């Protein structure tokens, strides 16, 4: 019996590969839904409640902001708009360390079990740190 061509898989291997691709596609769809849910939770948590005096508002990012800046939300502050990206986890909280996306946008890690107050406090802390950096930069350049 001759050797099979390199790209010619056995029928059972093709079925396994097809099933694997479908499983990955389903996992990606689930991940997208979890991510959207996390974004909505952050928006809801930051729409109402107690905020610092410099906090002027909070909104979802536009499609252009999302596509080009990797931004999910925008906090309106007294120093201008500050973008924020949301990462959602089903399992456990990320380490709680301050992170940035590849484009320099601060990231909030949300666990689906977090309360609105926990999410709001985390967002305020991240935005306050960004605001502080902006004020320090402005102070240095105005000298």
Notable characteristics:
single chain; 143 residues; alpha+beta; five-stranded mixed sheet; 49% helix
Taking all Cα atoms into account, the compactness measure Rg is 22 Å
Low-confidence stretches: none
Q: What is the arithmetic mean of pLDDT?
A: 81
Ends: how far apart?
83 Å
Instruction: Report strand order across the widest sheet.
Output: 1-2-3-5-4
Q: Sheet with the most strands?
A: 5 strands, mixed
Number of helical segments with 4 or more residues: 3
What is the chain-wise order of helices and strands?
A: HEHEEEEH
Please indicate the count of domains: 1
Count the E strands: 5
Q: Categorize the overall geometry.
A: elongated
Helix content: 40-55%
Give an account of the 3D structure:
The chain has one domain (11-141). Helix 1 (11-47) crosses helix 3. The protein is elongated. The model has no long low-confidence stretch (mean pLDDT 81). A 5-stranded mixed beta sheet has the order 1-2-3-5-4. The longest helix is centred in the first third of the chain and has 37 residues, at 11-47. The chain is built from 3 helices and 5 strands; from the N terminus they run H-E-H-E-E-E-E-H. Strand 4 and strand 5 (106-111) form a beta hairpin. It starts with 10 loop residues before the first helix and ends with a helix. 49% of the residues lie in helices and 20% in strands. It has 143 residues and is of the alpha+beta class.
Q: Helices, strands, pairings?
A:
Layout: H1 11-47, E1 55-60, H2 63-69, E2 73-77, E3 80-89, E4 99-100, E5 106-111, H3 116-141
Parallel strand pairs: 3-5
Antiparallel strand pairs: 1-2, 2-3, 4-5
